Automatic annotation (TrEMBL):
It holds the Pfam family ABC_tran. Keywords: ATP-binding, Nucleotide-binding. PROSITE patterns: ABC_TRANSPORTER_1, ABC_TRANSPORTER_2. The keyword Nucleotide-binding applies. Belongs to the ABC transporter superfamily. This is ABC transporter ATP-binding protein. Transmembrane segments: none annotated.
Amino acid sequence: MKADVSSSPPLVALRGISKRYGDLLANDHIDLAIDRGEVHALLGENGAGKSTLVKILYGVIEPSAGEIFWEGQPVTIGSPVEARALGIGMVFQHFSLFDELTVAENIAVSLSDDWTLSRVRNRLGDISRAYGLALEPDRAVWTLSAGERQRIEIVRCLLQNPRLLILDEPTSVLTPQEAEHLFTTLDKLAADGCSILYISHKLEEVRRLCRQATILRGGRVIGTLDPRAKSAREIAAMMVGTEIGEVRSGTPHEPKGSMLEVRDLSLSAPGLHGQSLEAISLLAQAGEVVGIAGVAGNGQSELFAALSGERLAAAAETIRIAGQVCGTSNIDSRRRLGAAFVPEERLGHAAAPTHRLSENTLISHAAAEVSHSGFILLNAAKRLAQSIVKSFDVRTPEPDPQARKLSGGNLQKFVIGREIIRRPKLLVVDQPTWGVDAGAARLIRQALVDLAGEGSAVVVISQDLDELFEIADKMAVIHQGRLSPLRGITEWTKEAVGLEMLGESQLHGASHAV
């Protein structure tokens, strides 16, 4: 039975919370209250102050001013250990895992001493099945994709039976069926009295799940509302301070010419774990966006590595870019054929964290021989980086900062802009809008559609089905290393894609001819 909150103080209340970093006021006198059993959304664009606020609540950072009240009593939360002792559980968007430990070891190390590895393994299976989040207890974390790492964070938190559960983008790795299962479970948790603070850029799921939403902009609360009473577009406009338009497809035209052709690509799993690729065939033509859907861990990372040249095929003829065989060619050779690539992990893979934006631009563009001399000098790279920042609305703390100083959404806009500004014949991008706000997502998706409209082929690997249905002309689903036949986007439904993602369709037994 849901707890009676009519005469009780909120489970948690933040009053006048501020956090200053030098001249930057990340949180500016924020008030927020969450009742027992309430599902409350915290919304805002990248850089609005959401992460700072929840880190204060979870004891990761100390506020500059303000008070926290737990069940009406003032408390000081000096560490995550103290937060968990109160009953606060937090699932971060950015992971805090030890790469060399196994899944079970990562979970056990964060729990109390009575959580032995044996107990963790026993409970892990139950929780994983209940939430539709499959995990292998003895698999090393360094072998996992970003989506699988997020699953560990979710399960680790739920094992602690929190009274307040803070979730940051929890459905980014789930199929529609799994997401709905999670929502059902969260509804039950709330009905039993567990409060939930829900952070997501997927506004339709916020409207489905939450009854209250607090919106931040520029570190301040600009409003609290019932998200069911507003459309997703109206909420997005409040978040960013301006109207969010739809992605425009431009002038329709027939695709012409093969820019990417993959024939019968098979690769063994990279190491003891990971996913092998089996008989992958794919065609992306000039002027079209091809979407690849799938649940994390089913071969997306391996497929991206094979297309980009980070892993090489057994035969050159397996992959052709702009008509040239390149299955055994490295990434620089493929760039020189006119291809560009944006991997899933933006910080560390797509961009060197301690290198400045201009230096990251130089590293990427020099290999593609974009200048008349075959290389671009650093001063030219600085001008190009400035152009990317301006064209893609990248908000930076200084003129040419290190990549690590940008927020996730702004770094994502930069690395995608860095490749698009080359006007490549082929762009392959993995999870283009994962964890970015509505405004940034719209800008990125529009840039991808515009690039295809100019005659490039764009391949988008994404776990966001709304994104693929919005921008893709054709789509296939990857499951356990096999790719379904490529079909026009109008031939798919979300339910059909979800079944494919779960491996419950018969299409995987069909021929995968291009």
